[in-house]
């Protein structure tokens, strides 16, 4: 019984880390929030009990609540340590003047006249 619990905990941890890394690569780098807002959301999720009147299986609610807390907390740690790099999706636009080869020809023609 003890080994089964340890294996379930280990599997849950690995699954949460995989989900967090996928979210970090594809979603979290695009969202720019203050690290304190993320920490506040994690604390609220940690403290808030299940909503009374909503018929949710308590075991599933506990797993989802723990997963959200862990993902938000890991995101906050990445933002605090500076390991989260936001991608800049705006490309730098360089304005290059258009070459005007006839300008020199026209200037030479005006000088000759």
Q: What does this molecule look like?
A:
It is a single chain. The chain is mainly α and 113 residues long. The chain has four helices and no strands. The chain has helices spanning 2-28, 35-47, 58-81, 102-112. Helix 1 (2-28) packs across helix 3 (58-81) and helix 2 (35-47) packs antiparallel against helix 3 (58-81). The longest helix is centred in the N-terminal third of the chain and has 27 residues, at 2-28.
- Output the number of helix runs: 4
Report the uncertain regions: none
Element pattern in H and E: HHHH
The proportion of residues in beta strands is under 5%
| Quaternary assembly | single chain
Shape: elongated
Helix fraction by DSSP (H/I, runs of at least 4): 55-70%
> How many beta strands in the DSSP annotation?
0
State the end-to-end CA separation: 103 Å
Main sheet overview: none
Question: What is the residue-averaged pLDDT?
Answer: 82
The helix-and-strand class reads mainly alpha
Radius of gyration: 28 Å
Defining traits:
113 residues; 0% strand
Q: Outline of this structure?
A:
The chain has 113 residues and is mainly α.
Helices and strands in order:
Blueprint: H1 2-28, H2 35-47, H3 58-81, H4 102-112
Helix pairs in contact: 1-3, 2-3
């Amino acid at each position: 019984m003890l080994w089964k619990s340890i294996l379930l905990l280990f599997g849950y941890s690995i699954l949460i880390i995989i989900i967090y890394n996928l979210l970090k690569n594809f979603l979290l780098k695009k969202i720019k929030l203050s690290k304190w807002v993320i920490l506040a959301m994690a604390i609220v999720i940690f403290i808030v009990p299940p909503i009374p009147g909503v018929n949710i299986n308590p075991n599933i609610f506990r797993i989802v609540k723990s997963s959200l807390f862990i993902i938000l907390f890991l995101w906050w740690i990445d933002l605090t340590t500076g390991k989260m790099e936001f991608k800049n999706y705006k490309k730098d636009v360089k304005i290059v003047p258009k070459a005007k080869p006839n300008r020199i020809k026209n200037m030479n023609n005006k000088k000759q006249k």
